[in-house]
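User: Watch each token:
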Amino acid sequence: MAAPKRGRSASAQSKPGRSLVLILIAIVALAGGMFASGHTTPRLGIDLAGGTSITLKAKADQGSAINKANMDTAVDIMNRRVNGLGVSEAEVQTQGTDNIIVNIPKGTNSKEAQQQVGTTAKLYFRPVLASEPSGPAGKSPSPSASPSGGSSPNPSASPSAGGSSKPKASSGSTSPTAGATSQGRAVTDALKAGPTPSPNSSSSGSPKPSGSPSAGGADTSKIQAQYAALDCTKPADRANAGKKAKPGDITLACGKINGTWYKYVLGPAAVDGTEVKKAQAVFDTQGASGWQVQMTFTGGGAKKFADITGELAKKQQPQNEFGIVLDGEVVSSPFVQQAITGGQAEISGSFKQDEAQSLANVLSYGALPLSFQEQSVTTVTAALGGEQLRAGLLAGAIGLALVVLYLVVYYRGLSLVAMASLLVSAILTYVIMALLGPAIHFALNLPAVCGAIVAIGITADSFIVYFERIRDEIREGRTLRPAVERAWPRARRTILVSDFVSFLAAAVLFIVTVGKVQGFAFTLGLTTLLDVVVVFFFTKPLMTLLARRKFFADGHKWSGLDPKGLGAKPPLRRTRRPAGPLSGPVDPKEA
């Protein structure tokens, strides 16, 4: 039984090159992925790269109050919004009782995050009673009749033959009619596919709507006057359009479709945005729709959506249209030709990728419980963070130099193993951090840099544990090759326990903290895991190989493993005295 065991041990010791080749392949693969992705440097947080700091002041809405629960909910939603856009290291925190501070680092999608971070994201699907291109008062036609009266308005937004047409909300494709230019975004049944019927048009003018939703007691003349005076090209008019309107009211709204501002008279909300269960941006690879937002409704929302689209399909333009209203602005006003059932729909037409992702992100994470007013927007420069980073890197360099100096003086030749292991650990850490930027939106901030510097000590400690175990074996009189193998099991247990404690502390710190402290905890945990990988797959195999070299095996005085310098003693051996007659005087009595 002993012979096969020695054979397996000898075989394992004779092939340490496999582990070295394995870690070399891993480094090359990770570095290749880094260069292939184009992200050759880690992403930086706001303290190192600069960015934008936004102060938002909460305003109580109808039915909601400014309290801790609503503020905490708003912070959570804002956090998910900016992280959903790929903006890492964004900090969202309350200040006082009614302010929220949002720090957005400079980088990809930071502008989109700034635009939507305080957006309330209240979505309604409202039937369109009237719509037309907007301009200065007196230069755009006004509705010819009350939006709530027996005869409906006759806006010029519905194109005549040969003009442009709005895409449909139907069970078919969303592509506009040949030769037409899309003015809006279509909402279609996501479960069906088929040809898109052409919209009803007339060469003599817009078709007359067949009716309109009830006004619910609204002041007809007031709505008509406001609609006539509304100029959606003016920011002030857009902000005041439909202000304080309730979901059940007829209201005014503005919307920008393909670069042109439109003004609308909208009926009571038929479907609430809270009844959108899920939304995601997808690219239509089989059609010409391009980027679109797919929506899945809840059970109740699916029924309401089917009912309203079924009612609108019976009417003529513009009253077969419905407006998708987000925070008082119409983002689309497609028309319907048949009921959309099944609980799924698509918003498509003239979307850019970032626009589709932004809308899907807002719809997915829901509405804020409070409205927020932007108090200030401050640009944060990276100058201060750059100075702190230089100071931190200088401190890290000094610490690393002291560690190397200690290793050289105390361990001599073994210091080459330690420095090579530190280099491998540094390469893996850098490459993985660069890859984690686009993968999970990790950003390097000052606390994360501190975590990486602390990791130098953790990694060096693992080498020292192993080296001391080897020296202990040599002091007991063993030669280097068996000393390396006998020291490994004892050192391995100590290293694993030590790294487990460090990783556990990093994990707890990451869970219970927020903001930049999480960067420190994440980096500490990552480097602790890499320490285990480097010690097992690089340091130990490298020591096995070096133990076969004469310089180390013979215990050269500069190898750090000189038996005389370590105070090694030869192993104790028992000696037997030769058997023979006892020497000394003989008692005469015994003789």
Remarks:
- The CA atoms of residues 133 and 260 lie 7 Å apart.
- Residues 1-12, 137-184, 190-218 have pLDDT under 50 and may be disordered.
- The longest strand covers residues 123-133.
- The chain is about 45% helix and 15% strand.
